[in-house]
Amino acid sequence: GFPRDIEQGELLQKSHIIPNRVFFFNLPYESIMERLSLRRIDPITGERYHTAFKPAPTPEIQARLRQNPRDKEENIEKRVEINYRNVKELEEFYEDAFYVNADQDPHNIFEFIESCVIRPLPSKKIKKPVINKDAKN
Fold first, then answer.
1. Which keywords appear in this protein's UniProt record, sorted alphabetically (predicted)?
2. Which string of DSSP letters, residue by residue, matches 27-86?
């Protein structure tokens, strides 16, 4: 996700780019590993597969599938560790964030996010300046 750390969040804010909704996806470590480490790609067609959730339809395709080096377990572990180190500060920085249980059907995840996006934001009352009518210009 983005921002990945508090420094990026602060840079966004200093640039006057302030998201009106922030989502944190919660997913157990085992599920992260299962989802990422079992991804494969067909180098001929570019089609993406998952050995558990969307296996290749034929043994021929299965034989030519390749794994992106980023999806090797040791690389996933490094990325997850970095995320775990940074997420607490980001959660404090974006205190009004939404938390998504990402360990469920993608359709349910989409519906939850959609409900958060279409829900009107709370309006913030802007204080009007007090004008002193007795003051001389």
1. Kinase, Nucleotide-binding, Transferase
2. --HHHHHHHHHTEEE-TTT--EEETTTB--SSHHHHHH-B--GGGSHHHHHHHHHHHHHH
Segments of 35-74 assigned E as strands: 39-41, 48-50
Question: Considering only CA atoms, which of 135, 77, 85, 67 is closest in space to residue 56?
Answer: 67
The pLDDT tens digits for 76-91 are 999 999 999 999 999 9
DSSP category for residue 70: G
Domain 6-116 coded CATH 3.40.1080.10: no
Q: What is the pTM for the complete model shown?
A: 0.76
The number of beta carbons lying within 10 Å of the beta carbon of residue 71 is 17
